[in-house]
Amino acid sequence: MTFHDQVIAILPKLRVQALSLTRNRAAAEDLVQDAVCNALAAQNSFIPGTNFSAWMHRILRNRFISDLRKRRETTDIDDVPASTFASPATHEDRLALKDLSLALSRLPADQREALVMVVIQGMSYEALAEATDCAVGTAKSRVFRARRQLEAWMTGDMPSNDKLRVKVKALRDAIDVRHRAGQSADDLLFS
Amino acid sequence: MTGGDKSQSSSGKSKGDDQDSPFGIWLSRGLHQLFDDVASEPIPEELLKLIEEDRKK
């Protein structure tokens, strides 16, 4: 596979990473395009046979950080509305998804990115560490803290949406009952 | 491509992780709903053109 084929093949994963960082689809598309431009310009620095995926994810991440520094001169990325994790969710899930989106937007960008790359892209902690230029322990910690924080917000520490807290608690209780009875809870989770 | 993300030697699904807890399962499902369609959308022609033009250099 040529360098350019590898760039094309990794684009879907770059989009997911970009959305996890920017929380905005349009900004994510721009970030992917900018990262691809940077990668094309720096292709001679890529050593064939080394980890292309990690190299490309690092370029996108560095570009995001660089853009963020420039933007912070005029605005704060954390003030950007969290409305743009656009998703065609179905009926009952819509509220919970909206709140998950909101909760995600409250996480630090590095934790959000780490969680998404592990859960959505199935990355190992080693691969995540290489892609985000940190120690494996740091990568693990980011994912762990993201999960713990989201759980806290979604199940008890999100006073702005008590309905959601009640709903999640009821779901967890129902799943626990099923599991204790040795029954599957898939229908509760995937209905 | 030597994708390092194939290795599962210490993945987010490892034993002792809470990905298999009820909340972990719910979270995974929610994240997939939020992100999966982004990954599957067609790549913009403009971006592909940019890459192909560079390939010809």
Automatic annotation (TrEMBL), chain A:
InterPro entries reported in the protein's UniProt record: RNA_pol_sigma-70-like (IPR039425), RNA_pol_sigma-70_dom (IPR014284), RNA_pol_sigma70_r2 (IPR007627), RNA_pol_sigma70_r4_t2 (IPR013249), RNA_pol_sigma_r2 (IPR013325), RNA_pol_sigma_r3/r4-like (IPR013324), WH-like_DNA-bd_sf (IPR036388)
Record keyword Transcription present: yes
All residue ranges annotated as the RNA polymerase sigma factor 70 region 4 type domain in the record: 99-150
SUPFAM superfamilies given in the database record: Sigma2 domain of RNA polymerase sigma factors (SSF88946), Sigma3 and sigma4 domains of RNA polymerase sigma factors (SSF88659)
RNA polymerase sigma-70 region domain segment(s): 11-72
Keywords assigned: Sigma factor, Transcription, Transcription regulation
MF (Gene Ontology): DNA binding; sigma factor activity
Pfam families, per database record: Sigma70_r2 (PF04542), Sigma70_r4_2 (PF08281)
Entry's family note: Belongs to the sigma-70 factor family. ECF subfamily.
A GO BP entry: DNA-templated transcription initiation
Keyword Protein biosynthesis: no
Stored PANTHER family: RNA POLYMERASE ECF-TYPE SIGMA FACTO (PTHR43133), RNA POLYMERASE SIGMA FACTOR RFAY-RELATED (PTHR43133:SF25)
Protein known as: RNA polymerase sigma factor
TrEMBL record, chain B:
Biased composition (Low complexity): 1-13
Domain of life: Bacteria
Annotated Anti-sigma factor NepR domain residues: 27-52
Region (Disordered): 1-24
Pfam family, any one: NepR
InterPro entries named among the record's database cross-references: NepR (IPR041649)
Protein name, per record: Anti-sigma factor NepR domain-containing protein
Species this chain originates from: Gluconobacter cerinus
